[in-house]
Amino acid sequence: MEKSRRRGRPGHDQDAVLAAAVRLFNTRGYDATSMFDVAESLGITKSTLYHHVSGKEQLLTMAVDRALDGLFEAAEAAVRDEGAATVRLKDLIRRSVLVLADRLEFVTLLLRVRGNTAAEQHALARRREFDRIVTDLVKQAQAEGGVRADVDPATAARLLFGMVNSLIEWYRPDRGAPESIAGTVADLAFDGLRHR
Q1: Which of 112, 114, 121, 186 gets the highest tally of CB atoms within 10 A of its CB?
Q2: 114 burial class (0-12, 13-18, 19+ CB within 10 angstroms)?
Q3: Burial (CB count within 10 angstroms: exposed 0-12, middle 13-18, buried 19+), residue 87
């Protein structure tokens, strides 16, 4: 039998602690949220909270990594797949929207980090690596003739993901199926980038 990595009372495992922290970080801000606030929101003591995590910085790292891990899984699938770079880039856009919909609170927090802590600097470094992957796919798509060559690849990558990332401002599950929204975002993005 596999030993569980989570400890604590039912309903107060590491995932519950992380979810509570992310909600508070998103509503109050990371700096304005204390470990006491997280414990209070769960109805547990601070000492019980420290049974699950070492501190606020660990919670932030875990949260942004949850978002980034999903985005990197999408990127790795796009890089690994065979076929035209334009198709793989469009698929990456679609998959990234699905990650955002599935991990909305985590991605929201990721997009708000500014580099003020070691955890935030780590997250920004990983975001830059993700941006490089997208930029490389844009370059490949341009070389194949599937994407306009008169657009700077890094700018195109930023604009594509600016559209994806804007979903944190308005997307809610009741606004439509994630697959439908992902298709719409990808179609709109590529109707503007394809050769005419």
Answers
A1: 186
A2: exposed
A3: middle
